[in-house]
Amino acid sequence: MAAMTPTAPDVDRKSAARAPRPAARVRTGRRPRLWRGLVLVLGGAYFLVPLVASFVFTVHTPGQGVSFEAYTALLAADGFVESLLLSLGLAAATIALALLLAVPALVAVRLGAPRLRPVVEVMCMLPLVVPPIALVTGISTVLRWGPDHLSRTPLYQTFLAVQNEDFPAVLVLAYTVMALPFVYRSLDAGLRAVDVPTLVEAARNCGASWPYVMLRVILPNLRSSLAGAAFLTLALVLGEFTIASILGFRPFAVWIVSISGAHARMSVAVSLLSLLITWLLLLVLSRAGTAPTSTPGAPRTSRKES
Question: What DSSP line would sit under 81-147, residue for residue?
Answer without folding.
Answer: HHHHHHHHHHHHHHHHHHHHHHHHHHHHHHHH-GGGHHHHHHHHHHHHHS-HHHHHHHHHHHHHHHH
